[in-house]
């Protein structure tokens, strides 16, 4: 047999093996070895036949055809082509391959969006470089920390680097300096910091309201005479409350720095600064103004009690749930707290010293997280807004894609639901547009304007304000804000004498209602409205919006059902270039664009019917969503770099990087569920293809895997059949702790 045939046969067998590795990086080495063994066996058979040792005669081309045929059979049965042929996913596969080619170029940096609003961490994957790496952004140099295998990370804080707080959309160059080597330049998309007042608090008697803008580090003060002032404040203001005693001041809570400031509302000067727990989210002040309670989410989550008179903060109190909203109840020792991820309402008894709390009542399960809490002025009730409420819990947890726009009243004395006001109701199974134009996606609440037993509510989905009687079943009165450009209001407050003020973070400003003029006066803070953001928050005529589930442009962490599948609402912040989306196994569907998800699910399957039928509404929503940065990870401040290096080494050793390579920590591939997991841990029939998710933001996921049922410890234990979802079976407890810390730091 000629050397040419021998060489060509081996080359073709090797080409088949390389092809298998390229189209599916997760393919097992055993299969590749099998291809080569079969090829060499066929080659030997052809050679022996040619020498006359067998009666079977093979033409020379058979030496090529046999191994190639066997290689193709193995690939079709076990490899990516077979899986995609069965799922009719060739187009998806081609697009995912393009993603892999893009991210395999070096150097690569992720995430791809840089924000002017809060601290961020970026990962840089180099071609095995192990020296000193420095990153320069707009003239400011940032040293990068190496984790090994050519992976680096660096932290960026716009508040400390002079990064423009307000800037038009676009890209910013990032220069990577490799020691004495030649610098390389890549680009990041800019998510500019723009004024976004969301919540608002007021003192109607004094005629003053206060609101904070987290992205731009500003505090806004609105007066009854129409005057609007704004002052700079510390990094990342998340909440603002008028002091109920010294009403000429307000307390400003910050999330990016551990500070609580008392600010003079006339001059903007800081009167007092207290050091508090990192990761603050929300503040409540007792009616007497003596005590404050702060909800925080950090490495641990919980509450912190502050003595405002003494100017001291007690040690933070860790809780077993993640607190979101909180208000004082019947006294300054009674605290009502809503849980975000477990959709509960809890009642805590504060010790007199403020250094401990205990649950004084059984938790009330809501079915959807509370979006806002309001304590009435007498302390007898707490009101909350929600996209759903039910009892018993199974009604919503296992129900269809149901959105119930509701205001719920809790009787504090009885600790029971006193009344439920359904402002609108929507279901994904409706057969036509129901023409809902008011009461959609309730957000902020406020005490009614000088009238007992009335409350004000704003609706971010329908762009209106509603006035509700809480003691009698009368129809609500709605006032539209669309005429003045406010389509997505979040906060509302009374300025007294019949005046009201509404805050809209999408509009980037406020609207003030003067009773004698019977109209709303808009107050824009100098930012352009993004139509994609408007459509994200604006409810369709089907009665629901993107943010009905993806609360505040992210997730409500609630359980939803979309026909054939169900699961916890996915994260939507910081997802640029992590396609495919909708990744937990929708039968036969794998979307490489947010626009495809929006069009196929929100508009077609759920019959959304966008208002006005604007052109390219799905594309506009996609463009806005892909520019949203991921939030700050509290472990960036606390994690030990040495532990992260050990954890990343174990990440490589356990085979995790095969399917989750940096810097995006996904290779955009797909795998059959039955191949990855034993049927006992969630496999289904028919056998779906599962997308490899990005591991960025692992710390924010309440559950993992496609069925969203495992915690992270369980994920690291699941490797049945062996070695298919990584292999950590030989890791010690200390090594597993290092690996887990690395994953939670992403």
Can you describe this structure?
This protein has 746 residues and is an alpha+beta fold. Among the domains are: 76 residues, no CATH class; 85 residues, Sandwich (Immunoglobulin-like), CATH 2.60.40; 325 residues, YVTN repeat-like/Quinoprotein amine dehydrogenase (Methylamine Dehydrogenase, Chain H, 7 Propeller), CATH 2.130.10. The chain contains 15 helices and 43 strands. Strands 2-9-8-4-5 form a five-stranded mixed β-sheet, with no helix packed on it. Strand 11 and strand 12 form a beta hairpin. Helix 9 crosses helix 10 and helix 12 packs across helix 15. It is globular, with a radius of gyration of 29 Å. It starts with a helix and ends with a helix. 48% of the residues are buried. About 8% of the residues have low confidence.
- Strand order, biggest sheet? 2-9-8-4-5
Proportion in helices: 10-25%
List the uncertain runs. 22-30, 48-59, 77-106, 395-400
Can you tell me the CATH superfamily of the domain at 209-533?
A: YVTN repeat-like/Quinoprotein amine dehydrogenase
The average pLDDT value, as a whole number, equals 77
Largest sheet: 5 strands, mixed
CATH C-level label of the domain at 209-533:
Mainly Beta
Q: Distance between the terminal alpha carbons, to the nearest Å?
A: 56 Å
Number of E-type strands: 43
Name the beta content range: 25-35%
Please give the radius of gyration in angstroms.
Answer: 29 Å
Query: By helix and strand content, what is the structural category?
Result: alpha+beta
Form type:
globular
CATH architecture of the domain at 209-533: 7 Propeller
Number of helices: 15
Q: Looking at CATH, which topology of the domain at 209-533 would you report?
A: Methylamine Dehydrogenase, Chain H
